[in-house]
Amino acid sequence: HGPMYGHGFATLFLAECYGMTHRGEIRDKLSKAVNLIVNTQNHEGGWRYQPVRRDADISVTICEVMALRAARNAGLFVPRDTIDRCTEYVRKSQNADGGFMYMIQGGQSQFPRSAAGVVALYSAGVYDSPEIKKGLAYLMNFLPQFNDAHNESHYFYGHYYAVQAMWH
Fold first, then answer.
1. Is the overall model pTM greater than 0.85, yes or no?
2. Contacts for 79-88 with beta carbons within 8 Å, 24 or more apart?
3. Which of 33, 61, 118, 158 lies 20 to 30 Å from 143 when distance is taken between CA atoms?
4. What is the rounded average pLDDT for all residues in the chain?
């Protein structure tokens, strides 16, 4: 859907590689990748499909915050302000039912993006908050069934993040 998805996952990959090897050439590339993420965060605190500071959505934002967390864990500097603004964006993305909307302009909750929202908060260092509790309760109330795999939009995407949410 856009290069920022790929960039987020590639940055996550680079961070994991650097964390295992501490090779200087990987650190240099990882540092540039982190800088692009930091420098394209929009005024709301999230990211979108293109590396520009326009709008944001929860699905691209989760990719970027996971990448930033991995880079920080590998020893790179990630500005606290970037994470704080991202956390605020994710919190604003939560609906009253505990699930998460796609964009903060409004929308209904769905399991896949709600799992992503919970993991975004965990990745930002939020482990125990009302948003986490409400998000986990939402996920438990709307667990997809295996036979829904062909009928439900983003079934595997949702499970990718739900596994991480439940692991935490």
1. yes
2. 79/38, 82/37, 82/38, 82/41, 83/124, 83/125, 85/41, 85/45, 86/41, 86/45, 86/46, 86/61, 86/120, 86/124, 87/45, 87/121, 87/124, 87/125, 87/126, 88/45
3. 61
4. 95
